[in-house]
């Protein structure tokens, strides 16, 4: 083995050819599964897209680096399933750009945190984690309640997502700003529009407890409350049997 390596190092052309061969093998191993991706990703007829408010919340989640301490992928290990719920399916991340599976858990996995806690709990926790979890090491994000949410560019965000395959309609894109406001203000005409465009199961309520004002807290809580609920595929009988 050492003799072969020594001889390759003495031949520039031979070394380059060998590197190309090895890199090609590695690339093929990575690329080959993509040819059968339509067969390996589960079907989820009930899968829905993120609302504009949830998209804004996801952007804030990324901006604040939440993904660095919280993963969003429950593995098939029994202890993870017992703690967090059904293991994550590929289809559940099909509209995530970028995906936020993560690899580190300073805090718990959030793949199925949606509606696990109340909006009040989530707001208190983000404003000052020690108010609800005394031993928490998570920093406080008090500015989320103070910062008004920017909504004028949400149509552009939805357009960008449609470019990479998320099936937003023209109507959803045109009404993105209004729908963001309406989702956090249920007793308004805009709130009714959210149900029309995203379905009756959409969370439409005052997430941060302050009506008539749309904040970054509204957006982030709305995003957290939908995690694990874009589709019911993970709770189907065939997966329950696999557990």
TrEMBL record:
Name of this chain's protein = Cytochrome-c oxidase, cbb3-type subunit II
Q: Cytochrome c domain: which residues? A: 52-228
TM spans (from-to): 12-35
One GO molecular-function annotation for this sequence?
metal ion binding
Entry keyword Metal-binding: yes
InterPro entries given in the database record: Cyt_c-like_dom, Cyt_c-like_dom_sf, Cyt_c_oxidase_monohaem-su/FixO
For this protein, the record's Pfam families field holds:
FixO
In the UniProt record, the signal sequence range is: none
Which NCBIfam families does the protein's record reference?
ccoO, PRK14487.1
Q: What is the lineage of its organism?
A: Bacteria, Pseudomonadati, Pseudomonadota, Alphaproteobacteria, Hyphomicrobiales
Heme is among the record's keywords = yes
Keywords, alphabetical: Heme, Iron, Membrane, Metal-binding, Transmembrane, Transmembrane helix
């Amino acid at each position: 083995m050492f003799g072969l390596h020594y001889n390759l190092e003495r031949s520039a052309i031979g070394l380059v050819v060998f590197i190309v061969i090895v890199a090609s093998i590695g690339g093929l191993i990575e690329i080959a599964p993509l040819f059968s991706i339509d067969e390996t990703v589960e079907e989820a007829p009930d899968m829905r897209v993120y609302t504009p408010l949830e998209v804004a919340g996801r952007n804030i989640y990324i901006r604040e680096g939440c993904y660095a301490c919280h993963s969003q992928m429950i593995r098939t290990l029994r202890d993870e399933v017992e703690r967090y719920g059904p293991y994550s399916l590929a289809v559940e991340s099909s509209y995530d750009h970028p995906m936020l599976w993560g690899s580190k858990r300073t805090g718990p996995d959030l793949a199925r945190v949606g509606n696990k806690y109340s909006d009040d709990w989530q707001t208190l926790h983000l404003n000052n984690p020690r108010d609800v979890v005394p031993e928490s090491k998570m920093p406080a994000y008090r500015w989320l309640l103070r910062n008004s949410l920017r909504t004028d560019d949400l149509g552009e965000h939805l357009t960008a997502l449609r470019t990479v395959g998320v099936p937003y309609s023209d109507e959803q894109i045109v009404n993105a700003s209004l729908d963001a406001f309406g989702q956090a203000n249920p007793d308004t005409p805009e709130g009714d529009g959210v149900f029309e465009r995203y379905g009756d199961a959409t969370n439409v309520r005052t997430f941060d407890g302050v009506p008539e004002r749309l904040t970054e807290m509204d957006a982030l809580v709305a995003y957290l409350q939908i995690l694990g609920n874009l589709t019911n595929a993970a709770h189907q009988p065939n997966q329950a049997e696999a557990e």
